[in-house]
Amino acid sequence: MTAPSALPDRPTPQPGVRAIAAYVPGKSGAPGANSIKLSANESPLGASPKAIDAFRAAADHLEIYPEGSSRVLRMALAEVHGIDPNSVVCGNGSGDLLLLLAQCYLGEGDEAVMNRYGFSLYPIVTKAAGATIVMVDETDYTADVDALLAAVTERTRIVWLANPNNPTGTYLTSAQVRRLHAGLRKDILLVIDSAYAEYVTAADYSVGLDLVGKSDNVVMVRTFSKMGLAAARIGWMVGPAHVVDAVNRIRGPFNVNLPAQLAGAAAARDVAFTERLKAHNAQWRDWIAAELDTNHMRVVPSQANFVMVLFPDAEHATKAFQALWERGLIVREIGNSYGIPQGLRISIGTESAMRAVAEVLKDFQ
Predict the structure, then answer these.
(1) What's the domain range around 150?
(2) Is the domain of 149 the same as that of 262?
(3) At 54, which helix (H) or strand (E)?
(4) Which member of 29, 244, 278, 301 has the lowest number of beta carbons within 10 Å of its beta carbon?
């Protein structure tokens, strides 16, 4: 008779949970009272005034549960983007939706594919579902369609694609994304994470709605965080009916609070503010890239609201970070979290912030 195995003396997480490297956000404090945070890709112009008013108005109804499906927000998104509100699911930030998608479509023995320098939340949600993440090498910090397709196996269930990508700022064209999708089996879910779509100026870019509309295995995920509502935590996704149904079955019943729903709806409709934010970003993204692209720094062309600056080596990057830090300019180190130790990610801020960054780094050797 086999002796029973010893039981653990405390609750034990599922296999693999302890192997997950927790998400580490960018630093948010620096010496001096007037430090400037350029580490989290937040809006340099604040939030839409209409969204702020809507958020404040919600204070009169804090005793009431929010409508469970975020209907007011879904209707606003449908109106602005020309989509069916029933194809939309809202979440507590886009990270909430990424986690839900992983829980729905990944399990023990499954694989999810992503590019090497893709968003660091993808490995977390994949491993949390018991699946394995497959990292695929890039070409000059850009996702490689052929390499992604070559990494697909019979175990692949999801392909994660941030477009534009964080932290590199690079993107795949509409034609490249369509080619990626065409090469996938019909049972593989392509998740197009368009978190930075509001800032793209490239004419050959698509947010992914075209593929969602005519495919049974594509979803597009978006966020309000980069357009001034990071504190409100609002994400949304568009997908085919069967994916929407699956996600709605496991999401929290009130996963988007009422102030966030109302603020998000107002922000979505405030197209003029979104355009002003995009114009500001394009101006100062191009300016900082031109200022910093020198013989000892390389700025990777970006379509997001940040730039990735590459230095000769990790030591130079660390010294550059410290020089900025001492001036109260907080940028993002991307060595530990993204495996690019020679790089810094710098959010596009106000004109004065961008000029201050350029002044420090141009004098830095």
Answers:
(1) 49-270
(2) yes
(3) helix 49-57
(4) 29
